[in-house]
């Protein structure tokens, strides 16, 4: 890591663009539930268009090959124009990827989503009944409607967007493991699901105590070289256009720039990013976002 330069010649990728940080759920494993204090809002179409156009200008290969995740610390389907934004990316040749909760897949929303031609959908359905769903996602009487709407969505996808890939996603932590075992029998062999995925539990930037308590134990290393490569690889963008080092920054602790009035190229080698790279290269990381992150020295 010490050999990595503060100035990077290769262009950035965009890991994710947060369409909104509004969310109807109270997920116990999400830092948004417990600790997010920043204002809520939605990304405008004009700003989203600028982001996609700028991504294509600065790194067309990554934009067209890898696409971009269109979610952050919110449920993107509550954005009133989520489909317009997603369709703009798809029409521009940028694969649109999204993580959603199937409870929101009412018929109109489902049709709008599929009409926007997402390349990949992570469908998150933790729990195995109403009680376990409420314990994890914070919404009562919601598992059965979620299950029913997801099955209806899979049928609709065959008609409207057969190329869209579906990954069924659950999060691996103690309170969910019984449900994961039960869910395999329900979902793993469903033909329309391309992958049954158990995602590792994350503690985000390590600054959310209630989330940290849910982890099996400490991850990463307190000593040794910094191994996180995000400052040399990609950026995350909040709904208001602020650019962040990674998708773990739920409260905009480390803002690197603003795409509303800067280009990605300017931000990528701007002073805040150069300072972050120098800090990582030094091996002594004390900024409020990264210092407690278990991915810093993974």
From TrEMBL:
Cofactor dependency: [4Fe-4S] cluster
Stored InterPro entries: 4Fe4S-binding_SPASM_dom, AdoMet-like_SPASM_containing, Aldolase_TIM, MoaA_NifB_PqqE_Fe-S-bd_CS, Radical_SAM_PqqE_MftC-like, rSAM, rSAM_sf
Signal peptide boundaries: none
Swiss-Prot/TrEMBL keywords: 4Fe-4S, Iron, Iron-sulfur, Metal-binding, Oxidoreductase, S-adenosyl-L-methionine
Pfam families (UniProt xref): Radical_SAM, SPASM
One example GO MF annotation: metal ion binding
Membrane spanning residue stretches: none
All copies of domain 4Fe4S-binding SPASM, residue ranges: 228-294
Top-level taxon of the source organism: Bacteria
Radical SAM core domain: residues covered: 17-155
PANTHER family: PQQA PEPTIDE CYCLASE (PTHR11228:SF7), RADICAL SAM DOMAIN PROTEIN (PTHR11228)
Protein name per UniProt: Radical SAM protein with 4Fe4S-binding SPASM domain
Species assigned in the record: Oharaeibacter diazotrophicus
């Amino acid at each position: 890591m010490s050999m990595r330069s503060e100035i990077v010649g290769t262009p950035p990728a965009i890991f994710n663009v947060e369409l909104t940080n509004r969310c109807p759920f109270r997920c116990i494993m999400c830092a948004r539930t417990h600790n997010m204090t920043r204002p809520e809002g939605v990304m405008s179409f004009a700003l989203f268009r600028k982001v996609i156009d700028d991504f294509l200008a600065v790194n067309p290969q990554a934009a067209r090959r890898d696409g971009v995740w269109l979610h952050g610390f919110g449920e993107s389907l509550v954005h009133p124009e989520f489909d317009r934004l997603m369709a703009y990316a798809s029409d521009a040749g940028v694969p649109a990827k999204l993580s959603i909760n199937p409870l929101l897949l009412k018929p109109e929303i489902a049709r709008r989503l599929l009409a926007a031609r997402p390349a990949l959908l992570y469908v998150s359905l933790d729990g195995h009944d109403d009680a376990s769903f409420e314990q994890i996602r914070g919404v009562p009487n919601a598992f059965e409607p979620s299950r029913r709407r997801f099955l209806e969505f899979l049928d609709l996808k065959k008609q409207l967007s057969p190329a869209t890939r579906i990954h069924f996603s659950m999060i691996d932590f103690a309170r969910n493991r019984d449900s994961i075992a039960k869910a395999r029998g329900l979902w793993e062999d469903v033909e329309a699901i391309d992958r049954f995925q158990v995602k590792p539990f994350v503690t985000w930037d390590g600054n959310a105590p209630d989330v940290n308590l849910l982890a099996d134990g400490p991850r990463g290393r307190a000593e040794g070289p910094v191994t996180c490569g995000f400052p040399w690889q990609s950026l995350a963008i909040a709904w208001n256009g602020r650019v962040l080092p990674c998708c773990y920054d739920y409260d905009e602790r480390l803002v690197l720039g603003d795409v509303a009035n800067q280009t990605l190229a300017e931000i990528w080698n701007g002073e805040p990013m150069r300072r972050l790279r120098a800090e990582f290269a030094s091996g002594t990381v004390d900024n409020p976002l990264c210092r407690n992150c278990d991915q810093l020295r993974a």
